[in-house]
């Protein structure tokens, strides 16, 4: 039985939640290994829409054990709000496991995130203001608070005091904000301690034991390749490892145990927040894609920036992740276009780049080199086999597969769980 990583191959919002959900009935564990509630997954089941932010998509699949790994940063208020919302809709959430080593988003992390972003002005990163970046910064600076600290009030107070020693100087003297007290922070965090205690486990041990026993484990990334803190469009990135390597560090499972790495990629491209985006459309075509694809953020509601498919990014994602498969989503959004441009390379100051420029400045100035493919007008939402697609749609998929260098194993033709064409089994 395999261990499978599912991740975004662009800038996020590719439909990873749907891809994970489709595999959910055939896996035993679904692990979120990075990020926090700064990204959302939307899953549609029997016409009902579920918007998840912190929880793994596998929580919607009966029989699956959902796991929040050590690489995730957790806002406990958000965690319990999500759990209560799912329980109210009849979803069983009793199997959720939370890593004792996951870091907690403290109230001061949210405050620092918001005031810092405003302070940056035109140099802002475009964060969601939910405290994710500052929490990861605390983790790396070794002043973070972990889930296990909730169960030792003395240790918790010491850690919070250590973190606030510096942060209060910053808040008061630089940002002209009031100081945050140790007592109010500890009180808020401790209010969740007994509720979260039954969920807490050594999840790395649980997952390795599961793999030893022949269980199937799916690792679900938050954000995406181009937002990875090492391999994305830095500094306009998230604060965690959203690529395949992050599945190992964020879960406690070694790299030799991973069997497949599945990249989820849209039939076009979107991005939220600041930063370079070579194929972005700032005209009526971009607005058409946004409306046709419903491109508004699951977490923030922000309109997404939209552009054509970028094969350079697809090849890059294949390389840094070691992708074995691609899941192509939202092919149906392109229905009705006579011609569909696809970026095959970049022009940077008269020089052609077939691969991602290593220089961020060059990428910022990259002009897409397009080829145009034939569009189609037929409704493809009912297609369930590749042969059901119109010939032009088939050619579009096959051309993207060749350009991207990774086989396209599944194709999304609608928002529902069932609206998928499977070309190759992702678990075999």
From TrEMBL:
GO cellular component: cytoplasm
InterPro entries: Adenylosuccin_syn_GTP-bd, Adenylosuccin_syn_Lys_AS, Adenylosuccinate_synth_dom1, Adenylosuccinate_synth_dom2, Adenylosuccinate_synth_dom3, Adenylosuccinate_synthetase, P-loop_NTPase
Its biological purpose: Plays an important role in the de novo pathway of purine nucleotide biosynthesis. Catalyzes the first committed step in the biosynthesis of AMP from IMP.
Gene3D superfamilies: Adenylosuccinate Synthetase, subunit A, domain 1 (3.40.440.10), Adenylosuccinate Synthetase, subunit A, domain 2 (1.10.300.10), Adenylosuccinate Synthetase, subunit A, domain 3 (3.90.170.10)
Keyword Magnesium: yes
Protein name: Adenylosuccinate synthetase
One Pfam match: Adenylsucc_synt
GO MF annotation list: adenylosuccinate synthase activity; GTP binding; magnesium ion binding
Residues that coordinate or bind substrate: 298-304
EC top class, as a word: ligase
Reactions catalysed, as given in the entry: IMP + L-aspartate + GTP = N(6)-(1,2-dicarboxyethyl)-AMP + GDP + phosphate + 2 H(+)
Protein residues bound to Mg(2+): 13, 40
HAMAP family documented for this protein: Adenylosucc_synth (MF_00011)
Any GO BP: IMP metabolic process
Cofactor dependency: Mg(2+)
Record: residues binding GTP: 12-18, 40-42, 304, 330-332, 412-414
Domain of life (superkingdom): Bacteria
Cell compartment(s), UniProt: Cytoplasm
Binding residues annotated for IMP, in chain numbering: 13-16, 38-41, 128, 142, 223, 238, 302
First and last residue of the signal peptide: none
Lineage per the UniProt record: Bacteria, Bacillati, Actinomycetota, Actinomycetes, Micrococcales
Subunit structure, interactors included: Homodimer.
Family designation: Belongs to the adenylosuccinate synthetase family.
UniProt cofactor note: Binds 1 Mg(2+) ion per subunit.
């Amino acid at each position: 039985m395999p261990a499978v990583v599912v991740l975004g191959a662009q800038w996020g919002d590719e439909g990873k939640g749907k891809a994970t959900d489709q595999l959910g009935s055939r896996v035993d564990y679904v692990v979120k290994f990075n990020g926090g509630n700064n990204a959302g997954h939307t899953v549609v089941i029997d016409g009902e829409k579920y918007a998840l932010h912190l929880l793994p998509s596998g929580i919607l699949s009966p029989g699956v054990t959902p796991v929040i790994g050590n690489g995730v940063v957790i806002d406990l208020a958000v965690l319990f709000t999500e759990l209560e919302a799912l329980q109210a809709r009849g979803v069983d959430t009793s199997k959720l496991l939370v890593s004792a080593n996951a870091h907690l988003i403290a109230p001061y992390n949210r405050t620092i995130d918001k005031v810092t972003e405003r302070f940056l002005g035109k140099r802002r990163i475009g964060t969601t203001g939910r405290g994710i970046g500052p929490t990861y910064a605390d983790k790396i600076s070794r002043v973070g608070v972990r889930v296990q600290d909730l169960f030792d009030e003395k240790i918790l107070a010491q850690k919070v005091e250590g973190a606030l020693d510096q942060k209060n100087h910053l808040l008061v003297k630089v940002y002209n904000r009031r100081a945050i007290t140790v007592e109010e922070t500890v009180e808020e965090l401790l209010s969740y301690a007994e509720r979260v205690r039954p969920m807490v486990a050594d999840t790395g041990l649980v997952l390795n034991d599961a793999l030893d026993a022949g269980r199937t484990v799916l690792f679900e990334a938050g954000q995406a390749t181009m937002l990875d803190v090492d391999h994305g469009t830095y500094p306009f990135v998230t604060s965690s490892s959203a690529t395949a390597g992050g599945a190992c560090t964020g879960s406690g499972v070694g790299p030799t145990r991973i069997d497949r790495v599945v990249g989820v990629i849209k039939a076009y491209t979107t991005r939220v927040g600041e930063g370079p985006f070579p194929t972005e459309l700032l005209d009526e075509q971009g607005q058409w894609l946004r409306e046709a694809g419903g491109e508004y953020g699951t977490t923030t509601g922000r309109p997404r920036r939209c552009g054509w498919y970028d094969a350079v990014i697809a090849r890059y994602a294949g390389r840094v992740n070691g992708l074995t498969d691609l899941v192509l989503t939202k092919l149906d959004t392109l229905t009705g276009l006579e011609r569909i441009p696809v970026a095959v390379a970049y022009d940077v100051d008269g020089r052609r780049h077939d691969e991602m420029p290593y220089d961020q400045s060059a990428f910022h100035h990259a002009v897409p080199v397009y080829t145009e493919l034939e569009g189609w007008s037929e409704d493809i939402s009912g297609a369930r086999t590749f042969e059901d697609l119109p010939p032009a749609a088939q050619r579009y998929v096959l051309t993207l597969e060749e350009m991207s260098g990774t086989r396209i194993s599944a194709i999304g033709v609608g928002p529902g769980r069932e609206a998928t064409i499977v070309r190759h089994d992702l678990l075999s």
